[in-house]
Amino acid sequence: MSEVIMHITAGKGPQECRWVVAQLGRAFAREAQALGLECELLDGMEELPSSALLRIVGEAAPAFAAKRIGTNRWIGNSPFRPTHKRRNWFVAVTLAPEPETIIDLREEDIEYQAMRASGPGGQHVNKTDSAVRATHRPSGLVATAQEQRSQHANRKLARLKLAIMLEERRGQAKDHARKSQWQSHQELERGNAVRVYVGERFQLKA
User: Does CATH place domain 101-170 in 3.80.30.20?
Assistant: First the structure.
Protein backbone atom coordinates (compact mmCIF):
# COMPACT_ATOMS: atom_id res chain seq x y z
CA MET A 1 0.00 0.00 0.00
CA SER A 2 1.47 3.32 -1.08
CA GLU A 3 1.54 6.36 1.19
CA VAL A 4 2.46 10.01 0.63
CA ILE A 5 2.37 13.05 2.87
CA MET A 6 1.51 16.28 1.11
CA HIS A 7 2.71 19.59 2.50
CA ILE A 8 0.51 22.61 1.73
CA THR A 9 2.01 25.99 2.58
CA ALA A 10 1.09 29.65 2.28
CA GLY A 11 4.77 30.60 2.26
CA LYS A 12 4.99 34.30 3.08
CA GLY A 13 1.50 35.01 1.84
CA PRO A 14 -1.18 36.99 3.73
CA GLN A 15 -4.08 35.59 5.74
CA GLU A 16 -6.04 34.96 2.55
CA CYS A 17 -3.40 32.44 1.53
CA ARG A 18 -3.63 30.76 4.93
CA TRP A 19 -7.38 30.52 4.35
CA VAL A 20 -6.64 28.87 1.01
CA VAL A 21 -4.36 26.35 2.77
CA ALA A 22 -7.30 25.26 4.95
CA GLN A 23 -9.71 25.10 2.01
CA LEU A 24 -7.24 23.24 -0.19
CA GLY A 25 -6.67 20.64 2.51
CA ARG A 26 -10.41 19.99 2.63
CA ALA A 27 -10.65 19.92 -1.16
CA PHE A 28 -7.81 17.42 -1.46
CA ALA A 29 -9.44 15.26 1.22
CA ARG A 30 -12.73 15.20 -0.70
CA GLU A 31 -10.96 14.42 -3.96
CA ALA A 32 -8.90 11.63 -2.39
CA GLN A 33 -11.90 10.01 -0.73
CA ALA A 34 -13.85 10.18 -4.00
CA LEU A 35 -11.09 8.07 -5.54
CA GLY A 36 -11.22 5.53 -2.73
CA LEU A 37 -8.04 6.75 -1.06
CA GLU A 38 -7.59 7.06 2.69
CA CYS A 39 -6.94 10.61 3.83
CA GLU A 40 -5.86 12.04 7.19
CA LEU A 41 -5.09 15.63 8.14
CA LEU A 42 -1.96 15.37 10.28
CA ASP A 43 -1.35 19.05 10.91
CA GLY A 44 -3.03 22.35 10.13
CA MET A 45 -6.36 21.98 11.90
CA GLU A 46 -6.55 25.59 13.04
CA GLU A 47 -8.78 28.08 11.23
CA LEU A 48 -5.99 29.84 9.34
CA PRO A 49 -2.98 27.50 9.19
CA SER A 50 0.21 28.70 7.57
CA SER A 51 0.75 25.12 6.44
CA ALA A 52 -0.91 21.72 6.56
CA LEU A 53 0.17 18.09 6.27
CA LEU A 54 -2.13 15.63 4.54
CA ARG A 55 -1.50 11.88 4.59
CA ILE A 56 -2.83 9.98 1.56
CA VAL A 57 -2.87 6.17 1.51
CA GLY A 58 -3.70 3.87 -1.40
CA GLU A 59 -2.23 2.42 -4.56
CA ALA A 60 -3.07 5.60 -6.47
CA ALA A 61 -1.69 7.93 -3.76
CA PRO A 62 1.56 8.82 -5.61
CA ALA A 63 -0.32 9.63 -8.81
CA PHE A 64 -2.87 11.66 -6.84
CA ALA A 65 -0.10 13.74 -5.26
CA ALA A 66 1.83 14.15 -8.51
CA LYS A 67 -1.11 15.96 -10.13
CA ARG A 68 -1.24 18.47 -7.28
CA ILE A 69 2.44 19.18 -6.61
CA GLY A 70 3.38 22.76 -7.44
CA THR A 71 1.59 26.09 -7.23
CA ASN A 72 -2.17 25.96 -6.61
CA ARG A 73 -4.28 29.08 -7.20
CA TRP A 74 -7.61 30.24 -5.84
CA ILE A 75 -9.57 32.94 -7.68
CA GLY A 76 -11.97 34.83 -5.46
CA ASN A 77 -12.61 37.89 -3.34
CA SER A 78 -10.80 38.15 -0.02
CA PRO A 79 -12.89 36.69 2.84
CA PHE A 80 -11.32 39.31 5.13
CA ARG A 81 -10.98 42.44 2.97
CA PRO A 82 -14.09 42.78 0.78
CA THR A 83 -12.82 45.91 -0.97
CA HIS A 84 -9.43 44.43 -1.77
CA LYS A 85 -8.88 44.36 -5.54
CA ARG A 86 -6.68 41.29 -5.62
CA ARG A 87 -8.49 38.09 -6.68
CA ASN A 88 -5.64 35.63 -7.23
CA TRP A 89 -4.15 33.83 -4.22
CA PHE A 90 -1.36 31.26 -4.36
CA VAL A 91 -0.15 28.40 -2.16
CA ALA A 92 2.48 25.72 -2.74
CA VAL A 93 2.06 21.97 -2.49
CA THR A 94 5.09 19.71 -2.02
CA LEU A 95 5.82 16.20 -0.88
CA ALA A 96 7.00 16.12 2.71
CA PRO A 97 10.47 14.57 3.01
CA GLU A 98 11.02 11.27 4.75
CA PRO A 99 12.87 12.07 8.01
CA GLU A 100 15.19 9.10 7.45
CA THR A 101 16.52 10.74 4.29
CA ILE A 102 17.57 13.97 6.03
CA ILE A 103 21.25 13.53 6.85
CA ASP A 104 21.22 16.28 9.48
CA LEU A 105 18.33 14.70 11.39
CA ARG A 106 19.74 12.05 13.71
CA GLU A 107 17.50 10.64 16.40
CA GLU A 108 20.18 11.10 19.04
CA ASP A 109 20.24 14.84 18.27
CA ILE A 110 16.54 15.29 19.05
CA GLU A 111 15.24 16.07 22.53
CA TYR A 112 11.57 15.19 23.07
CA GLN A 113 9.42 16.73 25.79
CA ALA A 114 5.84 15.76 26.62
CA MET A 115 3.43 18.66 27.08
CA ARG A 116 -0.27 19.36 27.42
CA ALA A 117 -2.05 20.28 24.22
CA SER A 118 -3.45 23.79 24.00
CA GLY A 119 -4.97 26.23 21.55
CA PRO A 120 -7.78 25.90 19.00
CA GLY A 121 -8.87 22.62 17.55
CA GLY A 122 -12.01 21.64 19.44
CA GLN A 123 -12.48 17.92 19.72
CA HIS A 124 -9.31 17.28 17.75
CA VAL A 125 -7.03 18.67 20.46
CA ASN A 126 -6.05 16.24 23.18
CA LYS A 127 -6.56 17.20 26.82
CA THR A 128 -3.82 14.88 28.10
CA ASP A 129 -0.04 15.21 28.03
CA SER A 130 0.17 13.52 24.63
CA ALA A 131 1.49 16.61 22.85
CA VAL A 132 5.21 16.65 22.06
CA ARG A 133 7.86 19.33 21.65
CA ALA A 134 10.89 18.20 19.67
CA THR A 135 14.13 20.20 19.73
CA HIS A 136 16.90 19.57 17.23
CA ARG A 137 19.95 20.41 19.34
CA PRO A 138 22.49 21.13 16.55
CA SER A 139 20.25 23.67 14.79
CA GLY A 140 18.07 24.87 17.66
CA LEU A 141 14.94 24.24 15.59
CA VAL A 142 11.82 23.38 17.58
CA ALA A 143 8.68 21.62 16.36
CA THR A 144 5.53 20.80 18.30
CA ALA A 145 2.76 18.32 17.57
CA GLN A 146 -0.53 17.90 19.39
CA GLU A 147 -3.02 16.84 16.74
CA GLN A 148 -2.62 13.09 17.15
CA ARG A 149 -4.22 11.11 19.97
CA SER A 150 -1.11 9.32 21.19
CA GLN A 151 2.24 10.66 22.32
CA HIS A 152 3.96 8.19 19.99
CA ALA A 153 2.09 9.55 16.96
CA ASN A 154 2.78 13.16 17.96
CA ARG A 155 6.45 12.32 18.45
CA LYS A 156 6.57 10.96 14.91
CA LEU A 157 4.77 14.04 13.58
CA ALA A 158 7.10 16.43 15.41
CA ARG A 159 10.08 14.64 13.86
CA LEU A 160 8.51 15.00 10.42
CA LYS A 161 8.08 18.73 11.02
CA LEU A 162 11.75 19.00 11.96
CA ALA A 163 12.67 17.24 8.72
CA ILE A 164 10.65 19.79 6.75
CA MET A 165 12.23 22.67 8.65
CA LEU A 166 15.74 21.36 8.05
CA GLU A 167 15.06 20.86 4.36
CA GLU A 168 13.72 24.39 4.12
CA ARG A 169 16.78 25.73 5.89
CA ARG A 170 19.11 23.96 3.52
CA GLY A 171 17.02 25.09 0.58
CA GLN A 172 17.50 21.81 -1.24
CA ALA A 173 14.72 20.17 -3.24
CA LYS A 174 14.64 16.37 -3.35
CA ASP A 175 13.70 16.33 -7.01
CA HIS A 176 12.58 18.58 -9.84
CA ALA A 177 8.90 17.82 -9.24
CA ARG A 178 8.59 19.80 -6.02
CA LYS A 179 9.86 23.04 -4.55
CA SER A 180 10.95 23.79 -1.00
CA GLN A 181 8.86 26.08 1.17
CA TRP A 182 11.81 28.41 1.73
CA GLN A 183 11.03 30.10 -1.59
CA SER A 184 9.38 33.48 -1.25
CA HIS A 185 5.68 33.92 -1.87
CA GLN A 186 6.56 36.13 -4.82
CA GLU A 187 8.15 33.12 -6.49
CA LEU A 188 4.94 31.18 -5.93
CA GLU A 189 2.98 33.80 -7.81
CA ARG A 190 5.29 33.62 -10.81
CA GLY A 191 4.76 29.88 -11.14
CA ASN A 192 2.19 28.30 -13.40
CA ALA A 193 -0.64 26.90 -11.29
CA VAL A 194 -1.13 23.15 -11.63
CA ARG A 195 -4.68 23.47 -10.30
CA VAL A 196 -7.05 26.42 -10.07
CA TYR A 197 -10.04 26.71 -7.72
CA VAL A 198 -12.67 29.42 -7.91
CA GLY A 199 -15.33 31.10 -5.81
CA GLU A 200 -16.58 30.85 -2.26
CA ARG A 201 -17.40 27.16 -2.73
CA PHE A 202 -13.78 26.49 -3.72
CA GLN A 203 -14.63 24.53 -6.85
CA LEU A 204 -12.02 23.16 -9.22
CA LYS A 205 -11.88 25.16 -12.44
CA ALA A 206 -12.46 23.01 -15.49
Answer: no
**What is the SS3 assignment for 30?**
helix
Strands 88-95 and 131-136: unpaired
| 55-89 residue pLDDT tens | 999 999 999 999 999 999 999 999 999 899 999 99
Closest of 88, 78, 153, 81 to residue 114, by C-alpha = 153
CA–CA dist 144, 138 (Å, integer): 17
β-pairing, 3-9 with 88-95? antiparallel
* CATH top-level class of 3-97+174-204: alpha beta
Q: What is the CA radius of gyration of the chain?
A: 17
For the entire predicted model, the pTM comes to 0.81
